[in-house]
């Protein structure tokens, strides 16, 4: 009812054999929700909450947060909406949370580490999310950024459930958590792989530093192997594994990610149409064969070439 009469209906994300691959939106503000729906987002795979915090010298109130989260959830009735709790530090510094004197902030008190050190902020955020959830009909999932250990997973999921969050998971964006995905996914209801940070930490190259930008390529087989670990763990334990880093927006890499075990893909809404069209060209067996070709390469460029050669339909 929401789509304009002029536009053809957009089908849900799926492979050629009908395997569903929900295509979700990465959003940074609730105001982006309407456009994402128009572009065919089946829900939200990553809602970054930093915007609420970045513009201010102190944390927003529970009421301010509840209003924003309610606005977001209300735009997706009956749909999955994955909200990430505050990811402060490194490329997203916050004056009131992060120590400005860290020499290596990407390796410092960021993400879940920073929230743990200021737990009142995390508790307020979970309070606001639970209240927004109660006021709307979306299927709210909540996840923590920069989780590196099984213990952090247990800490976050237990705390979130204390606040009434029904589906609590973690981002996998540190190699340690990819390698331990089979343990992490015992506590976590789901994993969402952040390929931007996972690539940065796997290749040990600052994602914002131009001089090492060539390393920031999620096609690197080392990154793909880590993603496979998570995909395998998800399949074994029957837990969803999403992708929410930029890699999911690359139409051919999206096929590889599904072949590695990703069960949903989240991206900038403008990328949805091309990824939807690409997935429809391949069966799950094709996707696994294309992923195997990429995995066997020595470097990112060869992985891309090998995937292209194994996926001849792709222009
Ligand atoms: C990522 O690291 O891939 C991710 C999705 O999170 P962000 O880009 O916000 O760090
Ligand atoms: Mg990240």
TrEMBL record:
Annotated EC: 2.7.3.9
Molecular function terms, GO-annotated: kinase activity; metal ion binding; phosphoenolpyruvate-protein phosphotransferase activity
Domain called PEP-utilising enzyme C-terminal: residue spans: 14-281
Keyword Kinase among UniProt keywords: yes
Record-level GO BP terms: phosphoenolpyruvate-dependent sugar phosphotransferase system
Keywords from the UniProt entry: Cytoplasm, Kinase, Magnesium, Metal-binding, Phosphotransferase system, Pyruvate, Sugar transport, Transferase, Transport
Any one cellular-component term (Gene Ontology): cytoplasm
Protein's job: General (non sugar-specific) component of the phosphoenolpyruvate-dependent sugar phosphotransferase system (sugar PTS). This major carbohydrate active-transport system catalyzes the phosphorylation of incoming sugar substrates concomitantly with their translocation across the cell membrane. Enzyme I transfers the phosphoryl group from phosphoenolpyruvate (PEP) to the phosphoryl carrier protein (HPr).
The protein's name in its UniProt record: Phosphoenolpyruvate-protein phosphotransferase
Species per Swiss-Prot/TrEMBL record: Microbacterium pygmaeum
Parent-record interval covered: 239 to 553 of 557
């Amino acid at each position: 009812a929401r789509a304009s009469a002029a536009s053809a209906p957009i089908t849900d994300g799926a492979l050629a054999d009908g395997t569903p691959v929900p295509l979700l939106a990465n959003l940074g503000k609730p105001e982006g929700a309407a456009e994402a729906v128009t572009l065919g987002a089946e829900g939200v795979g990553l809602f970054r909450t930093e915007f609420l915090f970045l513009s201010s010298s102190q944390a927003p109130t529970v009421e301010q947060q509840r209003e924003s989260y309610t606005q977001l959830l209300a735009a997706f009735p009956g749909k999955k909406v994955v909200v990430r709790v505050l990811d402060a530090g490194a490329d997203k510094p916050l004056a009131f949370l992060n120590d400005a004197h860290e020499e290596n902030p990407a390796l410092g008190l960021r993400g879940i580490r920073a929230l743990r050190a200021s737990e009142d902020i995390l508790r307020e955020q979970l309070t606001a999310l639970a209240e927004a959830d109660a006021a709307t009909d979306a299927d709210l999932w909540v996840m923590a950024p920069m989780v590196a250990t099984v213990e952090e997973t247990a800490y976050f999921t237990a705390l979130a459930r204390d606040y009434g969050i029904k589906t609590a998971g973690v981002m996998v964006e540190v190699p340690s958590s990819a390698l331990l995905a089979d343990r992490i996914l015992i506590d976590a209801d789901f994993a969402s792989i952040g390929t931007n940070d996972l690539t940065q930490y796997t290749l040990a190259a600052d994602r914002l530093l131009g001089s090492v930008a060539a390393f920031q390529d999620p096609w690197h087989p080392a990154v793909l192997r880590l993603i496979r670990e998570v995909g395998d763990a998800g399949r074994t334990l029957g837990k969803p594994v999403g992708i929410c880093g930029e890699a999911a927006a690359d139409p051919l890499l999206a096929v590889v990610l599904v072949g590695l075990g990703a069960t949903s893909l989240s991206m900038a809404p403008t990328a949805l149409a091309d990824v939807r069209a690409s997935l429809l060209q391949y069966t799950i067996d094709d996707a696994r064969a294309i992923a195997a070709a990429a995995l066997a390469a020595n470097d990112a460029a060869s992985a891309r070439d090998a995937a292209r050669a194994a996926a001849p339909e792709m222009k």
